[in-house]
Design goal:
The complex is a heterodimer of chains A (353) and B (260).
Chain A: E1 4-13, E2 16-26, E3 31-35, H1 42-50, E4 57-62, E5 65-66, E6 77-80, H2 92-102, H3 107-120, H4 136-148, E7 154-158, H5 166-183, E8 186-191, H6 194-200, E9 203-208, E10 211-216, H7 218-223, H8 228-233, E11 238-246, E12 251-254, E13 257-260, E14 273-278, E15 284-286, E16 294-304, E17 308-314, E18 319-325, E19 338-342, E20 349-350
Parallel strand pairs in A: 3-8, 3-9, 6-7, 7-8
Antiparallel strand pairs in A: 1-2, 1-4, 4-5, 9-10, 11-12, 11-14, 12-13, 14-20, 15-19, 16-17, 16-19, 17-18
Chain B: H1 2-28, H2 39-46, H3 48-81, H4 87-99, H5 102-113, H6 125-153, H7 157-166, H8 171-182, H9 184-200, H10 203-207, H11 213-223, H12 226-252, H13 254-259
Helix pairs in contact in B: 1-12, 2-12, 3-6, 3-9, 4-6, 5-6, 6-9, 7-8, 9-12, 11-12
Classes of the chains: A alpha+beta (353), B mainly alpha (260).
Keywords (chain B): Cell inner membrane, Cell membrane, Membrane, Transmembrane, Transmembrane helix, Transport
GO cellular component, one term (chain B): plasma membrane
Membrane topology (chain B): Multi-pass membrane protein
Chain lengths: 353, 260
């Protein structure tokens, strides 16, 4: 049975519906990321799980128990906020102990749990510091320890890394994932950063305009995006406008070049425009076009970025970019040079709205 | 040249404020003919009515502060958290005591709570004291509310509230353990201003016939020469002491301010 279930959840603010018929089941111990642009409804869903917003419709249940009539302080949910939200009047140890004190835990148990939590985030030596005496990364680790101290049934992370600098973000996200796996706590993580979501999640929910466009593992979401939005939002994507030549044999034309797709396009008619997509890293340069899995075009520009070379190529109407690993033995292609890009037929995706 | 004008303006201002005070202090020390002495102060401090009224006013000030904090902190917090649209109206209401004379307020109270009313507060000493405390709280409302509201503005009360709620805290715990400690400087500023107002207040205490310090000062001023000056100097010292304490507590709350 699913641990956290959202069934037909809706939320409207006045006439604006920000969450539309959202359904999801989350297993115990899963790490789920809600990924999407600002205003897509991901934080609203998180806040409804926490109890800070009341759903306009639908139900949310945790461990089989409906959360409908429970106030936020009755849900036993830990939450970490973007702005840390440490209590400024309390030091680190007092912040971590707060939830346990509120729950009326014995003093010895509180002291032991605070020590355990501070050990978990490797900040035992800063127990007496006040929030204003700590860096953003340290404060967020304390906020994580504080949220975990009362042993919540679900951990909610509301863009916890957004206010941190790039280096700290990477190390802290790995730390969060390691702690989550160690404790086996069901976690919902909200972010607009695709790299964060891809790197630490068991499953990703890609949100678009109040609904989930796709729910899947990072591998599925990246490699087989369900919609045009998912394809364009997760990772970099080349969109190639083509025309259907023969739907029965999945034949399409890109400019004056023809290809056979792996994906079925039986729903289209001959002559219909069709949007195809390809990740920049899926192709490689070839000597000549062989078969149906290569495209030839003129190099517009080639940028040396160290480990990779990013090349933009004109296909006679569409411009695509592709990345290839730097090979010291090979010079990057020059602008104006005609090159052939070879790829696997399955790498060319058909975009649906 | 600009600097010269600034210094000139400052000097004139200081002379305007300080000269009368110097004159009054000088006069208060001249009770004994020909020499400076603290006789006027000794007479005032030795007067049992001074002790009685001063203690009464201090107790009233403390009661007013406690009542004011209990009234204003939750109100300002709730308005900021849940009813931000009402803020301009609440601010307007809290500013009314500045434009409505104290005599109007106290007459209103007497009409509403006299012995033949549904709530005859003026029928007993305790009732009248409670009524006086409400009056003082009304007079101090503009200062207390503004102080607390400014303090609340400096912290992210919405996120702190949600953080506390997610950790299991109810409203009382949130107010007592999170909000109040983080606006303590603001609350103390309001408290000291309330204290200064209550200590010198005359109209309400006189019309409600309570033995407060304000009416005592007036009584003394009408019948004596040097003692009122000594009392005024002491009153000024008390007010300045309160203002000094506001500055002092502001420094003590360094942690909270830095975090905010």
């Amino acid at each position: 049975m699913s641990f956290l279930t959202l069934t037909h959840v809706q939320k409207s603010f006045g006439p604006v519906q920000v969450v539309k018929d959202f359904n999801m089941s989350i297993e115990k111990g899963e790490f789920i990321s809600f990924l999407g642009p600002s205003g897509c409804g991901k934080t609203t869903i998180l806040r409804m799980i926490a109890g800070f917003e009341t759903p306009s419709g639908g139900t949310i249940s945790i461990n089989g128990k409906s959360q409908q009539n429970l106030r936020p302080n009755q849900r036993n949910i830990g939450m970490v906020f973007q702005a840390y939200a440490l209590f400024p009047n309390m030091n680190v140890a007092e912040n971590v102990a707060f939830g346990l004190k509120v729950a009326g835990a014995p003093k010895t148990e509180i002291a032991a749990r605070v020590k355990e939590m501070l050990g978990l985030i490797r900040l035992d030596h800063l127990a007496d510091r006040y929030p204003y005496q700590m860096s953003g990364g340290q404060q967020q680790r304390v906020a994580l320890a504080r949220a975990l101290a009362p042993k919540p049934q679900v951990l909610l992370l509301d863009e916890p890394l957004s206010a941190l600098d790039a280096k700290i973000r990477v190390s802290l996200r790995e730390e969060i994932r390691a702690i989550q796996q160690k404790l086996g706590i069901t976690t919902v993580f909200v972010t607009h950063d695709q790299e964060e979501a891809l790197s630490i999640s068991d499953r990703i929910v890609v949100m678009n305009a109040g609904k989930a466009d796709q729910i899947g593992t990072p591998f599925e979401v990246y490699n087989t995006p369900a919609t045009r939005f998912v394809a364009s939002f997760v990772g970099t994507l080349n969109v190639i406008e083509a025309k259907v030549v023969d739907p029965a044999s999945n034949r399409v034309a890109i400019g004056d070049q023809q290809l056979t797709l792996r994906h079925s396009i039986a729903a289209f008619k001959a002559g219909d425009p069709i949007s195809l997509a390809m990740r920049p890293e899926t192709g490689s340069l070839a000597e000549s076009a062989e078969g149906d899995t290569a495209l030839t075009g003129k190099v517009v520009s080639a940028h040396f970025l160290g480990s990779v070379i990013r090349t933009r190529m004109d296909l006679g109407g569409s411009t695509i970019s592709f990345d290839m690993f730097n090979n010291p033995g090979l010079l990057p292609p020059a602008a104006g040079e005609t090159v052939t890009l070879r790829f696997a037929a399955s790498d060319l995706l058909v975009l649906l709205d | 040249m600009k600097k010269l004008w600034a210094w000139g303006a400052l000097t004139v201002g200081l002379l305007y404020f300080i000269l009368p005070l110097l004159g009054m202090t000088n006069f208060s020390l001249k009770m004994r003919r020909g020499v400076y002495s603290l006789d006027a102060y000794a007479v005032v401090l030795g007067d049992p009515r001074f002790q009685e009224t001063f203690v009464f006013s201090i107790l009233m000030a403390l009661a007013t502060i406690i009542f004011g904090v209990l009234l204003v902190v939750p109100t300002a917090y709730w308005v900021r958290l849940k009813l931000p649209g009402l803020r301009p109206y609440i601010e307007f209401v809290t500013l009314l005591p500045l434009v409505i004379p104290a005599i109007v307020i106290v007459f209103g109270y007497i009409r509403l709570y006299n012995t033949s009313s549904w709530l005859p507060l003026t029928g007993s000493i305790t009732g009248t004291n409670i009524l006086l405390m409400f009056g003082y709280a009304t007079l101090a409302l503009p200062y207390m509310y503004r102080s607390v509201d400014t303090g609340l503005r400096s912290i992210d009360i919405a996120t702190l509230t949600e953080a506390a709620q997610s950790l299991g805290a109810g409203w009382t715990t949130i107010l007592a353990k999170i909000i109040l400690p983080n606006v303590l400087v603001a609350v103390l500023s309001g408290a000291f201003l309330t204290f200064a107002i209550v200590i010198g207040e005359f109209t309400m205490a006189a019309l409600l016939n309570r033995p407060a310090f304000g009416p005592y000062m007036q009584l003394l001023g009408a019948n004596r020469a040097y003692e009122p000056a000594a009392l005024a100097v002491m009153s000024f010292a008390l007010t300045w002491g309160c203002l000094g304490l506001i500055q002092l507590v502001s420094r003590f709350q360094k942690g909270v301010q830095s975090a905010a």
